[in-house]
Amino acid sequence: MLYSIFKRRRIKSKSIVFVFLTCFLIWLQSSDKRPKQALKKSNTSHTENFNLKYVNFEKQNQTLEQIISNLNTQYKINNFHFIKQILQEEQAESSKISNNSKINYPYPVPKFLVILIQVHSRLDYLKELINSLRETRHINESLVIFSHDLFDKEINKLIESVDFCATLQIFYPFSLQVYPDKFPGHDPNDCPKSIKKEEAKLRKCINADNPDTFGHYRESTIVQIKHHWFWKLNYVFDKLEITKSFKNLHILLLEEDHYVFQDSIHIMRKLTQEILSEVDIVSLGYFKGKNQLFDPKSLKSWSKAYWWASSNAIGVVVTRTLFDKIKKCSQIFCEYDDYNWDWSLQFVVQKCFKDHLISIYPTFSRVAHLGEWFDFIDKINDSICTYVCFKVEHISKVKNVIKIQRYLK
Q1: Are 53 and 155 contacting, i.e. CB atoms less than 8 angstroms apart?
Q2: Which of 9, 35, 313, 318 is least buried, going by the fewest C-beta atoms within 10 A?
C-alpha cells in the first residue's frame, strides 16, 4: 500500500555450526562476564602491527585482546559537544517512558538517534559512506558508532578525522583477528568447508557429524558477520553507559558499503510517526527483486507491508522493544543455519514472534547498497576505487532529485 510521507495516515496494524555457543559468549561479554578462555592471554603481542592513536593503551606488553577490551570499557566520544544538550533532553523523556509500564502508540519520535555501522576492511567504501553522512540533515543530532571486527590504523584514523558529528568506535571482541588460531576463529582442527562427511569423520575434525544444510562445514570468516551483528546491538542497547538507560532508543543499522542520502534521517523520523505497534519496523532501503528502487515519481511515497529480508534489510531501524523480542528468541537466531543476520531474523520472525514484522519504508530508497550495484556495471578492472567513484557519480543524480524538492530546506 502506498502513502504520502507528508500526509499522516493511521493504519491498524549458509554455514553455521557452534553458533549458539558463540552467541552465548557474546551475551556473557555484554554482561561483563567473559568466559575464561576469552580472558586467557596470548603468548604473542599484537600491538606492534596496529599503531593507532590510542595513547593510553599503547603498551608493548598488551595483547590486541587487552587493547580491545580497554577501548570498549574506557571509550571516548569524539565531538561530544554536538549531542550534549540533546542527550539531557532525551534522558528526561526516557524517564517519563520508564515510569509508564505501557507504551502508547504513536509514541514521541526521539530527537536523538544512534547510527550503528558495521565495519570490516573496505576503506574506500567507508570513505564514501562518511562523505554521505556529512551531507545528511540532522546528522549533528546523532551519535555515529563504528563497530569494527578489524583493528586497523588507516580505518581508525579516517574515523577520528570526522568533525561534523559525535562519533564512537567499538570493537568486536571475538573477531578472527583476536582469535586467529582457535575458536571462535579458525581452529586448526576445523573441518574444511567442502569436505565430505565421511572423510570428515575419518579425520575426526571438529563437528564432523554436523555439516550444514548444503553439506558444508563452518567458515569462521563468514559466520563472524552474524555474530558481530548480534554483539554490537547487545553492546549498545545493554552495556554502553550513554545509551543503555534510554527506553525509546532507536538505532539505524548501516554497513561500510552503504550510502545514505541527505534527507534519510528526516524521512526516518517521518516514518517513525507511523509506528502503531511493537511489530512495526522502519527500513530506509527497499529492493524489488535484485533492484533497488529510485523512481522520482515515488519520492514522497511510503509503503507498509510484511518485512522480508530480501526487500527491507537495508537501513533497518531497530528499537529497544524490537531488540528485546529478538533476545528472547536468541537461541533460534543463533542456531538457524544461515550466516546472514537478515535471513536469520526472517526465520525468527516466522518461528518465534507472535506476529509478523511490518515494514514501513520509503518506496524511493534513502539508503543505497553500493555492493549490490557492482553487479550492474561493466568492470574495467578490479579496482574498488574505480567502482566506488563511478557509482558515486551515478548517485549524484539521485541526490539532485531529492535536493530540488521544496520540503528539504
Answers
A1: no
A2: 9
Pairing state between β 258-260 and 250-255: unpaired
**Gap between the Cα atoms of 86 and 265, Å rounded:** 16
268: closest CA among 287, 278, 282?
282
At 226, the pLDDT band (50, 70, 90 cuts) reads very high
Does residue 184 have a cis bond before it (omega within 30 degrees)? yes
The C-alpha atoms of residue 129 and residue 224 are separated, in whole angstroms, by: 22
| Residues recorded for the chain | 409
Query: What's the CA gap between 379 and 206, in Å, rounded?
Result: 40
pTM: 0.82
Residue 308 corresponds to which cell in the numbers above?
522480508
Model confidence over 29-81: pLDDT tens digits?
Answer: 554 443 333 323 333 333 233 333 443 445 556 889 999 999 999 888 999 99
How many Å apart are CA 233 and CA 239, to the nearest integer? 10
The sign of the CA dihedral 77, 39, 180, 183 is negative
Beta bridge partners of 67: none
Residue 250, helix vs strand vs coil: strand
